[in-house]
Amino acid sequence: xxxxxxxxxxxxxxxxxxxxxxxxxxxxxxxxxxxxxxxxxxxxxxxxxxxxxxxxxxxxxxxxxxxxxxxxxxxxxxxxxxxxxxxxxxxxxxxxxxxxxxxxxxxxxxxxxxxxxxxxxxxxxxxxxxxxxxxxxxxxxxxxxxxxxxxxxxxxxxxxxxxxxxxxxxxxxxxxxxxxxxxxxxxxxxxxxxxxxxxxxxxxxxxxxxxxxxxxxxxxxxxxxxxxxxxxxxxxxxxxxxxxxxxxxxxxxxxxxxxxxxxxxxxxxxxxxxxxxxxxxxxxxxxxxxxxxxxxxxxxxxxxxxxxxxxxxxxxxxxxxxxxxxxxxxxxxxxxxxxxxxxxxxxxxxxxxxxxxxxxxxxxxxxxxxxxxxxxxxxxxxxxxxxxxxxxxxxxxxxxxxxxxxxxxxxxxxxxxxxxxxxxxxxxxxxxxxxxxxxxxxxxxxxxxxxxxxxxxxxxxxxxxxxxxxxxxxxxxxxxxxxxxxxxxxxxxxxxxxxxxxxxxxxxxxxxxxxxxxxxxxxxxxxxxxxxxxxxxxxxxxxxxxxxxxxxxxxxxxxxxxxxxxxxxxxxxxxxxxxxxxxxxxxxxxxxxxxxxxxxxxxxxxxxxxxxxxxxxxxxxxxxxxxxxxxxxxxxxxxxxxxxxxxxxxxxxxxxxxxxxxxxxxxxxxxxxxxxxxxxxxxxxxxxxxxxxxxxxxxxxxxxxxxxxxxxxxxxxxxxxxxxxxxxxxxxxxxxxxxxxxxxxxxxxxxxxxxxxxxxxxxxxxxxxxxxxxxxxxxxxxxxxxxxxxxxxxxxxxxxxxxxxxxxxxxxxxxxxxxxxxxxxxxxxxxxxxxxxxxxxxxxxxxxxxxxxxxxxxxxxxxxxxxxxxxxxxxxxxxxxxxxxxxxxxxxxxxxxxxxxxxxxxxxxxxxxxxxxxxxxxxxxxxx
Length: 928
Hints:
The model is unreliable at 1-42, 240-254, 256-330 and 372-384 (pLDDT under 50). The protein has five domains: 2-29; 47-268, Class I glutamine amidotransferase (GATase) domain (Rossmann fold, 3-Layer(aba) Sandwich), CATH 3.40.50.880; 342-439, no CATH class; 453-807, TIM Barrel (Alpha-Beta Barrel), CATH 3.20.20.80; 822-925. The strands form three sheets. Strands 12, 13, 14, 15, 16, 17, 18, 19, 20 and 21 form a ten-stranded mixed beta sheet that branches. The protein is α/β, with parallel strands linked by helices and 928 residues long. The chain crosses the membrane at residues 21-40.
């Protein structure tokens, strides 16, 4: 061995003089002598690659191509990225086909690149992200995906002054199915499409390269072409280690814990090898100062001279919108044998059991949707097990439903066993199979919904596309058929009104020539629906809307353009914070507040709207821990300085007492405005419903990052409905977002209406979320938005919640709370009678008699209150409900052992009825 080492050392010195790279020589020579395996143990990954849900179904071909190219890499799960440090310390980052990024992730990427990081991206990067994210990504990657090509086209070099070794390597050109990239002013095309007027296919800057096709997809491009471009881009930003020309055995190593701030959760990563890796020997990313982001010209509104916050320790911060994602993720990737922790195994088991409960609950509601007499006559003598009993009445095939539920229960019991045996792939496969089978058992062809708030946001884009009252009528027909009873109609957007206003400077130019609000009120009322005016409160403009109406990107909207002193600013003097798209008003400005109040008064007095919804009733996203704050408008600074003697631009979060006062001051501006709106508008219209669209973040975090303290508004009685934007792509996450507020005791008598975003939701997945809402103690839901209400959703909603009779009108909870409570309780009683009459309720005979007697007492009290509301009848109904609730768990003790989910659902529905009574009491007391 010593002789071999001497030979190696001698050859190294000789070749070093000839200009060869020592590391390459070591690898080749030691390998030829049999001293090390084909890949050195201390060889480092060349780049980091981002894994996300967007590229998960392409992951196997992506990783196969990386290995075939000999590019060693480590994996960073996008879900774990909260700050620049989470993107690691490799110099090059690969972002393949990632279409969805959050503001925090995009800002982290921009900060990471400002410190020397270099980016390679492919496909329509960020195309499904928020407008502000897309705008920031354009500056990061030097352009954006303009449009897809209809078929494969020839890729050829661009006539540019780029280095020849960058674009003339073997295999870089051929036929590809991609899209046209629209470059910005600082990027240079590196390749173009031959048959589309030589439009750009690849653009590059000194710090990024964007490939205009989905990398790693067989149907898009060949492996040789993909790898040629990737290796050329890597070489452009750093020299490949010599061994990169060899295949990496065994896949990719995971990034070290020093590279990723948070370990990837088992279900969010593809399989990777576990070979330990040594500290990185890439050139370090220097801590160069972050370049100043270009801000819009200040010709329209003069920004105050502010400075970045000082004495702030930078942390791994999370934007509020990212905090909506729970740290426990139940993404289940098929055929993955990545380890599942015991905690995740229990979570998967519990979710499957909850899904079984929702399926049984929905089928029971469908089976009992009728009169008590109908149910009794149709089920007499039917003595079978409960799944078959319910299925027989709900229109679902009996054997299939019973088998699916039985099999799912067995799988749920078996998941912890499979995890203990480390059979992770089989556990995932069985879980997914059970979920798919259960989803098929929802009674999607039977009406099952009881009186509830079924609301939907009717967005500006859909209104504009309707084009006329006739077009709008078709939309309202579909909504009525779908059972929708409340429409949040976008009335003020980016400071433009949807109607011809005498207060606002301009009607939206996209709808001039008609009055959509007048049409909407008429159309909604003709269909027994409510129409609520949805207004933007403190968001003054919208860069996306500027694009649509061909306004300049920095145009702050017609109100700020005319009143520049009403503008708000961040701590760097920007009206629009980095990564966002909307300038905001200063809520402390008294002239601005009076303007908004006059505008809202105009809406509720000129039009017979049933309610008004305040959106953007907050400050923009901030993160004080990361040095990003907002609220430094002229009026706010002057008022705070009068109160404290200190200009808020001179303080930072490290000044704890002053900073707390500054946060409280801004929060109070929003709180007091909501109170003003409620009081002033209700003086004009006493029966007006006031609602707010809000973020479902933890209270303290929300106050510090948004200054939105809606618990205060609810307790004071300023609002009738809280509509939290509990948007999630699966039911477990939706429940984790909504549950804290559903269980909250801080909301007074205000009703909670969780929001469900239809975009990207599978049809049955949306129904699953609706069923969860119906099983929890809430009075309805809000769908975002009509733009996403496709034919499949329309069909399911029409079948399950559409009107039983075309001329019938059921009570809307926020309008007729006592009537809604009585009807909902009748439906609950039908379910109990259905189970009892078929000897399926596990309750002693003596208990059944007491249960039935008390249930009837409560029914009578609720019915009398609904028929003729009065204070005395309210007291009687409330007492009967309290008495029934106090004994409920005792009555259901045995039943809860066998059917815990259904027993809890019934208890939740009693709680929902109690909340309707509290809300009705408040309305009763507020009558003139």
